[in-house]
Task: structure prediction
Amino acid sequence: MHMLYMIFIDPFMQMAQAPDLFAQTLWDGLVAGVLYALIALGFVLIFKASGVFNFAQGIMVVFAALTLVGLHDAGLNAFLALALTIGVMFILAFTVERAVLRPLVNQPDIILFMATFGITYVLIGFGEYVFGGDPKVMPTDAFYLPKGAITYHTLGGMVQFQKLDIAAAIVASIMVAGLAVFFSKTRIGRALRAVADSHEAALSVGISLEQIWVIVWFAAGLVALVTGIFWGARSDVSFALEVIALKALPVLILGGFTSVPGAIVGGLIIGLGEKLFEFYWGPLMGGGTDAWFAYVIALVFLLFRPQGLFGEKIIERI
Amino acid sequence: MKARHLFVGLACAALLGAAALTGVAQAQDKIFVPLFTYRTGPFANSGIPIANGMHDYLTMLNERDGGIGGVKLDVEECETGYDTKKGVECWESIKDKHPTVVNPFSTGITLQLIPKAAVDKIPILSMAYGLSASAVGKDFPWVFNPPATYWDGMSMIIRYIAGKEGGFAKLKGKKIGFIYLDAGYGREPIPLLKDLAKDYGFDVKLYPVAGKEMQDQSSQWLSVRRDRPNWMIMWGWGAMNPTAVKRAAENGYPMDHFIGVWWSGSDDDARGGGTQAKGYLALNFSGLGSNYPAIQDIKKYVVDKGKSQVEKDKFADTFYNRGVFNTAMVAEAIRNAQKITGKKVVDGADVRKGLETLNMTAARWKELGFPDFGTAIHVTCDDHNGHSPAYMQQWDGKEWHRVSDWIEPMKDKVMPLLDAAAADYVKKNAGWPKRSEACAKLP
Result:
């Protein structure tokens, strides 16, 4: 009886008794959700264009952030370093297309998937060779990223908004919305969708597969850079950032591998869900539920919508 | 044609034989010290300074003294990435090269290697980490974990907190939060913390942090805000440490009530929190800074000659010195082994005896060029740990400062639990070998 009370009554009592903490949890969940959506977006872009789950997305986040900090630490102006890093991400996209994707056109998806493992290990080795394994501090001042917090004494307590989190949420939202519009309303976006539907059909109407792949990998590189800047500023810039890509997996399962809106909604559901569950129900299980609860949400959705919230239902007629 | 194949075959065999003989010859005129390190992966920020410290001290001994006892040290790093599987691979790759000792630098790896140590006759030195119960020499003759176990560390922190609160009696009714890496390492001190909570009447709140949550921790620190613990204790590693320090500062937690174990107190751990991290405390058992003759020798013989990987501004930082501390123990064990066996080139079985006779008093540290650098260590046949004291260091926003005397562990609480845990380990691992090794003694 006590256990039932702790599961079904007590958390809601806590929400009512301490609305400031409830509001804080919602905000933390929202910020986490937007940042998860950003990571997931990198996966979705590449999956849409090539049907490949890009295992290298996590290391691209690390590589982009390390390049930025490395160039800045070398004495370059922050915005020049940013511009050069964008250039490096373009070169990376171009190289991946030339050296990895082009030779593997028409190969089974699993081959391309395994190729992204190769890209991961090359980037790890190259990154460590160039930048070393030491953690770096993201120069937030140089990028005019805000510091400190806005604190409201309200709801019978205190709700705190870290300015960096606000900036991350705004920039990520703009980026997600911008990419969604770009890929749904522009000519390149339509070409991307055509490529996603069928490589052969897209080629037959004159769409350049190579060009689309470069654009998509470059876009994923930009997403990785923004992700690296904000996650790096929240913690530090090191190879540990790679593991945050794992947070995108349940988001992708939930939102669908091919849907940009799905990545956004999925990210928010996962972010809010895991923070609320950890805060109100986590103590019943010894805490640390945010390591696995996202996967529970994703699995529950899988039972009812295997294609994800916004994924396209695949019907194959024999 | 056949004759030609035979000739080629013989030539290859001769080459291989020569190479093998050369290898043996090299192994026989050098003392092999493998270093399990991690300069890559999510925990590299903690692993790199330790690796540099270990490597540079041994290199300095080679450069300055020509090795130990006139025999050069053959130092070889094996990258584990703090990954247990890779750690075991490293063990397999070095075990036939007559290694003197293995420093796994991971509790997970240590736990996997403990059963192998007695079989392969290679001692394990898990300096202040690993399995606390392995301090019991009669059950773990091949494992050493000086200068203190995690349980000693936890008891020192509780002793420090009690001192600040005005005595152990004042702990009653207090709330102590414990944020930890949700892995073997982080979970290790929980049994003792719970025992101490029962004894002194304080409440414990646990905040586990999974590996892939290390760089977020927003849920954990929001829970801290809700629970309002009077003190916070951290058992973090790698990227978890700087993130926790940042989150604590952001959430306005009083930093002078936030204490890390000795593995949560590197310069990089606190530096990430900037000036907001001012006041953060951590245990330490090795010296701060470069003002020691031996550390200056490292600079002179290794760093200035370009034989080190350490960045100039990170030379002699907290974890670099911790790595030096580790290899200073290794070097002393090798010296002891040479004295006990009378051999110049020693192997794992010899160095096991050297470790079992480790006695590094304040005077001995001074002789080695480390005055007031490290805690005194006295390892015996029965006690493979020493249960040495540590001190508290505090971050002033730029660097660490020592802010306490040596804090003794609560041996009366820790020792019975260690004995029970060792007995439990032996019981659970059916067929665990009884100690057959005689107790080593220095001549």
